[in-house]
Design a protein that fits this description.
single chain, alpha/beta, 6-stranded mixed sheet, 6 helices, about 35% helix, globular, binds guanosine-5'-triphosphate, binds magnesium ion
């Protein structure tokens, strides 16, 4: 996938009143809410486990508007994930790079979510969070452990980041440009 320059897209999206819908899933403690509020306020905020969801209106660095849904990831809440998936333009799945023990559970949850009909063909941004922690699994290592089953039917990218320090988040938003473009192509050819 080539990197796409989005500098001209802000007014384009404004004119067409397109606001992309991004849904962020992942196990509890993965760092989804920390990430949401880091993107919203540019600082690390204290969070508590999300029961239900949080939602914010955001813009990429070049001004493309999007709505980001952050859905609680505790096991008892995962049955509700499908309710949030309708009209999703891009799925963000957050992995805790320090939690090797629960990686199989996280990948299983990802597979299950991707099996939902609303997500057919939807681009996926996988975020390997908590990269600033010494000993955290590198994105390349996580990539090797991914089951490619359901991902096969999706354009996807994997990036490392730290919601705590902000490291890699701007780059991740840049990557959104790539998956965005694919989604636009999908929308425009429907
Ligand atoms: N070291 C480190 N800790 C992080 C990072 N991101 C989040 N955390 C911590 O991980 C814990 C859980 O973060 P949350 O953002 O609440 O996790 P969540 O994915 O929203 O969890 P649920 O709402 O239960 O689904 C908190 O103690 C955060 O401070 C990170 O990048 N690095
Ligand atoms: Mg949360």
């Amino acid at each position: 996938m080539s990197f796409i320059d989005f500098s001209g897209w802000s007014s384009f999206h404004e004119t067409l009143k397109i606001v992309f819908v991004l849904v962020m899933l992942g196990l509890d403690l993965a760092g989804k809410s920390t990430l949401l509020y880091r993107l919203k306020s540019s600082r690390a905020m204290e969070t508590c486990p999300t029961v239900g969801f949080n939602v914010e209106s955001l813009r990429t660095p070049c001004g493309v508007p999007f709505t980001l849904w952050d859905v609680g990831g505790q096991s008892s809440l995962r049955a509700s994930w499908p309710h949030y998936l309708e009209d999703t333009n891009i799925l963000i799945f957050v992995l805790d790079s320090t939690d090797m023990a629960r990686l199989p559970e996280a990948l299983e949850a990802l597979e299950e979510a991707l099996g939902h009909p609303s997500l057919a063909g939807v681009p996926v941004l996988l975020l390997a969070n908590k990269q600033e922690v010494p000993g955290a699994m590198a994105p390349a290592e996580l990539g090797q452990r991914l089951q490619r089953g359901q991902l096969m039917g999706h354009p996807w990218v994997l990036r490392g980041c730290s919601a705590l320090t902000g490291q890699g988040l701007q780059e991740a938003l840049g990557v959104l440009g790539e998956v965005w473009d694919l989604q636009y192509i999908k929308l425009s050819t429907d």
